[in-house]
Write a structure and sequence with these properties.
single chain, mainly alpha, Zinc finger MYND domain-containing protein 12 isoform X2, TPR-like_helical_dom_sf, Zinc_finger_MYND_domain
Length: 256
Amino acid sequence: MSAPDSPAHFHALLQLRGRTAAWPAAAAAAAGLGRIVQAEEYLSQAQWTVLKSTECCYATHSLLHRNLGLLYMAKENYEEARYHLANDIYFASCAFGTEHIRTSGGYFHLANIFYGLKKLDLADTLYTKVSEIWNKYLDNHYQVLSQVRTQQIDLLGKQFETDTGLDEAQEAEAIQILTSILNIRESTSDKAPQKTIFVLKILFMLYYLMMNSSKAEEYAMRALDLAKEQQLSVHEQNTIQDLLNLISAEEAHHIT
């Protein structure tokens, strides 16, 4: 096991505690300052260890800055939060690329800051970027795997299972990010219905790839209803209907 003050040890702690110290710190404001202070003390120690080390990779720096950004968001210190989230985006981009889903979290939290500060144009740009990143990632899986699920049968007569290529924590993060963006898009869907439908279709793909057909169908139905309500093009409505047809075809296959 790595030494308690080693970079490897703190990388492990960041991964383990990132969801129990920093993420809940955003909610700790409602529970009292004690938990935020505890998180700040821990992250200060982690920051000192990471910054003094020459061994920590870009991904570790990204994770540290994201947690610090979330901490300062919880403290409503938005200037400091923006600083750390900008560093998160920089290091994540170095590690994974600017258009990678691992980088999208930084964009998302930065967008939340701008949204809270009523800088809606900046927030909208970043929410769109996050949506596009997830759309590209999931669509790459969807285009291949939807064919597998509808056309190929294994030796037991069952459809091949597919997945998102994400672990459980990443799937939970994707749901949280995309549903948050959807809530914001739906508040202005009368002005920009296409943006709402875009996110609904992304959530369809996510749940479809997670083998949750009922949730996938729910989001596709919501997209189709909105497209009809806003009298969008027949092509758009047919595209959404194709998603529903895919679910119906799979259900018919299961019945037979």
